[in-house]
Write a structure and sequence with these properties.
The complex is a heterodimer. Chain A is of the alpha+beta class. Chain A is about 25% helix and about 20% strand. In chain A, strands 1, 2, 3, 4, 5 and 6 form a six-stranded antiparallel beta sheet that branches. The two termini of chain A are about 30 Å apart. Chain B contains twelve helices and four strands, in the order H-H-H-H-H-H-E-E-H-H-H-H-E-E-H-H. Classes of the chains: A alpha+beta, B mainly alpha.
Chain lengths: ~210, ~210
């Protein structure tokens, strides 16, 4: 089964200007604040995980026609529908986020680090080649950084693996690395030089020795 | 909502603002009735990001790094712990990395795949950070993007772009403006803008 993310935008030909926004301008309508809060409150119930949320958003067929909070809202409706919890005789809620737990819940967050099962395969300075192609599921290797050669610049420890977690296959933690690419490796020689490097964070199974 | 419902939706015009208000209110009502959400928790979440968790937190981190060499070193080695020592931690900032600008290096943060952003220090991302133009262009045309923000870097400056593809979140530590040697940490924090901590701006000059 093929999988298509409509959210993988890096490097796309995009001519529209960036519209700046003053600090403190958070919401443009009251519903946006409520949609944000509903997304966070339901995320805290454990009905689904963050990677499932991202997969639900990026596969919305009209992703590119929606504002960001519309994307969140549509994905929330979709996750709720797929979970079946709004059906009349659905089971009682697992654990609703209470008002007096909000500050502590936000301050704690959900760390993604886990005990590694194996030693790290790569170290800082290693040259690596990223996996090519789109797998048939959610992934966090952007299209522009597939099949490219870069250098390991940081080793982050073992992190929850989104490709598995988004599919409900468990956390399957893997070593996570920062990989730095030269701009010419990603975009070729044709563009005017910007003197830039681009770094992504990549899980071990995205990488092979170069 | 099923896939084909979305296909159906996209064939028509986008939802009117009033429809969105109704959709969200309907969702909140049914979820509250079933006990999945506590409306007061929703109020508390909105309040947290409107009044407590925003870019003034990050500005304090940057100002401390400018004033305190020990803190600056800690921030480089273990940003998560250094930032937590000022009381900022948690959701969407569980694994922090601070990247420091210098005379020869400028850092720029983006999330090309969604909208990953360091919430404990910067709060909720601005609309442009989540928009297609920024996400598409930041990795490929950083100088063009910076130009949109009125920031022109010397041709010799190396630009390091950080695409937040995992749960690591990046905070840019901008350069301390000239002429601020006698300013207090609190005065310095007032110069640090949100955009300067994303990499799309500079701190304000002292007046």
């Amino acid at each position: 089964m093929s999988y298509r993310s409509n959210a993988d935008l890096g490097g796309e030909d995009e001519r529209r200007a960036i519209i700046q926004e003053p600090e403190g301008e958070l919401f443009h309508a009251p519903w946006e604040a409520r949609a944000m809060a509903l997304t966070l409150a339901l995320g805290a119930t454990g009905l689904w995980n963050l990677d499932m949320s991202r997969a639900a958003r990026e596969t919305l067929v009209n992703y590119r026609d929606l504002s960001y909070y519309e994307i969140w809202l549509a994905a929330l409706e979709r996750l709720l529908s797929e979970s079946g919890i709004l059906k009349e005789h659905a089971a009682a809620p697992p654990r609703a986020l209470r008002a007096d737990r909000v500050a502590a819940t936000l301050a704690r967050g959900s760390p993604a680090t886990r005990a590694p099962a194996n030693p790290a395969r790569f170290a800082v300075g290693h040259a690596v080649r990223t996996r090519a192609g789109q797998p048939a599921h959610h992934t966090r290797l952007p299209g522009y950084a597939r099949g490219k050669i870069g250098t390991v610049t940081r080793v982050h420890g073992a992190h929850v693996f989104p490709d598995a977690n988004a599919r409900g296959l468990g956390e399957c933690p893997q070593w996570l690395y920062t990989i730095e690419f030269d701009e010419r490796e990603l975009w070729g020689e044709g563009l005017p030089a910007q003197r830039s490097t681009i770094s992504v964070d990549a899980w071990e199974s995205y990488l092979e020795p170069a | 909502m099923r896939e084909n419902d979305h296909a159906h939706d996209s064939a028509h015009e986008r939802s009117a603002p009033g429809d969105l208000e109704l959709r969200v209110r309907a969702l909140e009502t049914v979820l509250a009735e079933k006990g999945f959400v506590d409306p007061r928790a929703l109020d508390a979440l909105v309040d947290a990001y409107q009044t407590k968790i925003g870019p003034r937190n990050g500005a304090r981190v940057v100002a401390r790094a400018w004033c305190d060499p020990h803190f600056r070193g800690w921030l480089q080695r273990d940003a998560t712990a250094a930032i937590a020592s000022l009381g900022f931690s948690g959701r969407q900032g569980e694994h922090m990395v601070a990247v420091e600008n210098s005379e020869v290096v400028h850092n720029l943060v983006v999330c090309t795949l969604c909208s990953c952003y360091p919430w404990p220090v910067l709060g909720l991302p601005p609309t442009w950070y989540k928009s297609a133009p920024y996400r598409a262009r930041a990795v490929k045309d950083p100088r063009g993007v910076l130009c949109d923000f009125g920031l022109e870097l010397p041709a010799s400056t190396r630009i390091r772009i950080w695409d937040s593809t995992a749960e690591v979140r990046y905070l840019v530590v901008p350069r301390r403006p000239a002429g601020t040697e006698n300013m207090s940490e609190i005065e310095l924090a007032a110069l640090v803008t949100r955009d300067s901590m994303i990499g799309t701006g500079s701190p304000r000059a002292p007046t």
